[in-house]
What we know:
Layout: H1 7-20, H2 41-54, H3 67-76, H4 82-95, H5 99-105, H6 107-113, H7 120-138, H8 146-149, H9 157-166, H10 177-185, H11 194-204, H12 210-223
Bound molecules: iron/sulfur cluster (SF4).
Amino acid sequence: xxxxxxxxxxxxxxxxxxxxxxxxxxxxRPRKATSRSLYSPAEVHxxxxxxxxxxxxxxxxxxxxxxxxxxxxxxxxxxxxxxGVNKATKALFAAADTPARMLALGEAKVxxxxxxxxxxxxxxxxVIALSKAxxxxxxxxxxxxxxxxxxxxxxxRKTANVVLNxxxxxxxxxxxxxxxRIGNRIGLAPGKTPEQVEQGLLKVIPAExxxxxxxxxxxxxxxxxxxxxxxxxxxxxxxxxxxxxKTTGIPAPLVPxxxxxxxxxxxx
Length: 268
Ligand code: SF4
């Protein structure tokens, strides 16, 4: 006889169905946003403690030399791979690593450098426009406030959060496709929009882990809790995870991962 369904598994199922339906109830009715994590504070702490043992100093995979080039790289990375962006920006940043130099380069030349990146025409336009805005409104410096960053051409909330976190060490959470998936799949911070997942994660992740939480979650989603098929036997939080998609409850050995062991899969 099948064991009775626990309340917990029913709750996980409900959240996962909601996420899969874009936050709609089965009948198509909009479902009330939920941001309740399925995990206790102790469980969340343990999840991030393990991530911190695996990758004590996680690095993003976009190359940059200062806050300005980080901002440009993140703008260029929309709907492109980090590896593809890095190939194009190597020469671009050697030619222009400040807003003034980028402006002097001009839209046509910027376009020549980034032609291998999707949507390059529009991105070249934005890179020039944001360089001009930085010079006109911020004395050539990248602002450290989200409200100012999102006013720049081509800069949305996610880009602003990456720059604030990586360049300025602020405790922000830039929710990309990986983080959105993990937040919902495992019920860490369920939400039907990236902003709901962002708010949920900011609420549950202990402050001591916020500096690197964004990178840990992205890398976990990119290499382990993958979109099509999570690699649960390789997962260090398999015993804590409450996803109904998990295939094992035995966690992988908790050992530090050298950055070189990570590859650059081609993905959207
Ligand atoms: S156990 Fe599987 S589903 Fe859960 S976080 Fe790990 S990889 Fe993802």
